[in-house]
């Protein structure tokens, strides 16, 4: 008797088959290699396999849910990082603009300082020239 007919017999409630014979070595009345005991063992093995597969399925479902949760968290973190990078970039651009304005201001001030420095040098040269002529006059007059 094959596994499928055995399982079908069990499903119908038939637990006895014409092939059942008592084992001569068995004193408890259990059936040795009868098709019912083989069928029951196969049934138990299959039932255990189903339970194992159900546990594996539950574990896989839990792992998938955990992976989805981690993915959502990673996406959220990525969005936050992208937002922060955008903010930092914007701040850097603004700082660069302010720096350029200050540099232009400093160049303008440096040009004014250089211009005034040249004017001071010119005035010093004029003073020295005038001062030298004064000395010449004084030295020529006193002699």
From TrEMBL:
Basic and acidic residues: compositionally biased ranges: 81-91
Region (Disordered): 68-91
SUPFAM superfamilies: Tropomyosin (SSF57997)
Protein name, per record: Uncharacterized protein
Lineage, top ranks: Eukaryota, Viridiplantae, Streptophyta, Embryophyta, Tracheophyta
Domain of life: Eukaryota
């Amino acid at each position: 008797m094959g596994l499928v007919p055995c399982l079908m017999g069990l499903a119908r409630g038939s637990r006895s088959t014409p092939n059942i014979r008592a084992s001569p070595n068995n004193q408890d009345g259990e059936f040795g290699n009868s098709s019912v005991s083989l069928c029951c063992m196969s049934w138990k093995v299959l039932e255990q396999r189903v339970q194992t597969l159900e546990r594996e399925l539950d574990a896989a479902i839990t792992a998938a849910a955990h992976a989805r949760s981690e993915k959502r968290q990673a996406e959220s973190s990525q969005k936050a990082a992208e937002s922060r990078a955008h903010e930092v970039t914007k701040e850097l651009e603004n700082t660069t603009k302010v720096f350029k304005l200050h540099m232009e201001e400093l160049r303008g001030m440096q040009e004014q300082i250089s211009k005034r420095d040249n004017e001071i040098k010119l005035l010093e040269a004029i003073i020295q020239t005038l001062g030298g002529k004064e000395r010449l006059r004084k030295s020529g007059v006193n002699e």
